[in-house]
Amino acid sequence: MAAARAERFGRKNVIVDGGKVRRLRRTLGASSESAAIRIAVERTLALEEAVAALERLRRRGRWGKRLAS
């Protein structure tokens, strides 16, 4: 499991506001700042996928009038 996990992650050097990362860690209850950033990235990607799916539904016009009212 550890070997598979190591393959998925890569080291990235970014400049971020340390106070915001610490706040993010506390807010998410993450065990580390790295874990908090990974969680935030995963949630952001999931949110973007959901928004894209909703946009596709909207373009298709599949919601109907009941949901629009």
What are the key terms here?
69 residues, mainly alpha
What does this structure look like?
The chain is an all-alpha fold and 69 residues long. The protein has one domain (2-61). It contains 4 helices and no strands. Helix 2 (18-28) crosses helix 3 (33-60). The radius of gyration is 18 Å and the shape is elongated. The relative contact order is 0.07.
**Rg, nearest Å:** 18 Å
- N-C termini distance: 49 Å
Order of helices and strands: HHHH
| Strand residue content | under 5%
Residues in helices, as a percent range: over 70%
Number of separate domains: 1
Global morphology: elongated
Short overview:
The protein is mostly helical and 69 residues long. It has one domain (2-61). 74% of the residues lie in helices and 0% in strands.
Fold topology:
Layout: H1 2-8, H2 18-28, H3 33-60, H4 64-68
